[in-house]
Please model this.
Amino acid sequence: MRRLMYEAQRALASPVRNPRMATVIGRLLGAAFLICFGTGLYSHFLQEPLDWMRFATRPEFLYQVTQGTHIIAGIACFPLLLAKLYIVFPNLFAYPPVRGLVHFLERASIALFVGASLVQITMGLLNTFQWYPWPFPFRQVHFALGWALIGLLVIHIGVKLPMITRYWSKGSLDSEHPEDVSSVDRASNAEAVRLWGSSRPGGVTGRVLDYIDATPRTLTSSVSRRGFLTTVGVATTAVVGLTAGQTFTPLNAVNLFGPRKKGVGQQGVPVNRTSEQAKVADAALAAGWTLTVAVAGTERSFTRSELLALPQTEVQLPIACVEGWSQMAHWRGVRLSDLADLLSADPDTSFRLISLEERGSFSKTQMGREYVRDPLTLVALELNGETLDLEHGYPARMIAPGRPGVLQTKWLSRIEAI
Model:
């Protein structure tokens, strides 16, 4: 078994499988994870804010940028993680596989980190297509797993910090420490000499000793360092560039993999949740529909005609969804602050938005006072110069700056102070 392990490590030896390359790819992967974590936290707390939290409403496209960046960084993790696994793959054949408790904990934490990373980015990718082939709730598990991943990342960096520090700079390859060579377990060299010497006529040969003392830069391979980095760079650029167009307009023409295309959908805006899925068509199209606004025990109901008779405001705001796609659009309707003033709502009042949709995670949402009093926040009645389409929330929907699409409540039925 030991001889087979050493043989496997020798067969897998490559100039790119060295601590310096692992550090370079690890830096990029770590940055991508941190970007995902930070933007993911922002998105999570926008959807489930703590009582004391207040959020920026400017720039109005803020969530469009943060969530688009979140998805792009998550997609970039795929080629970067595969590249890192390619580099460290020979370590799986180290013998003995565990050299003590500390070594066991190190390998176990890395195994958990890799496994959790693959699960997390795969879940995130499938979420962009709104496909959930698992029995657990996506948002809660994705959030919890994000914290677990950051914890495992900190442990991994702590364990590998001496090596990371040593190989951080470009010139570190010229002073490699033989004990850090990933494809050879230097602590077991004596055992390797014994095994190879006893298994070959004439004992230990010069070839065997050359292998044992080799560093990655002296081993030959069809994959060069420059070629490897070029391949990783091209792969990362491709998966990002061919997806980012669903968020960033300049790349829309090359959006081949994103699940949404800009300008495609009713009234030129994509639709995530349809009226059929929400089961609201009958209620939304009913002649007796009204929007009820309730503040401090006082209620007032508005028909759509009455809402149209109030002062109308036009704004340009994006729909920006958690799946990473976004679309800028023109909206027209009544400022929420005007409705609040009609019922003498306190300037610090927050609201609960209630949809005609009876079931669904976001059939009821909360809106903090920073959005309520923003002049761009509307009860929208028109979209892109036309009467709001049923799929976009007819007879009335909410639109506000810097909010996720799931919080831009469609098919409004009630707005009440909280």
Q: What stands out?
A: The longest strand covers residues 326-335. The chain has a mean pLDDT of 88. The chain is about 45% helix and 15% strand. The chain has two domains: 2-246, 268-417.
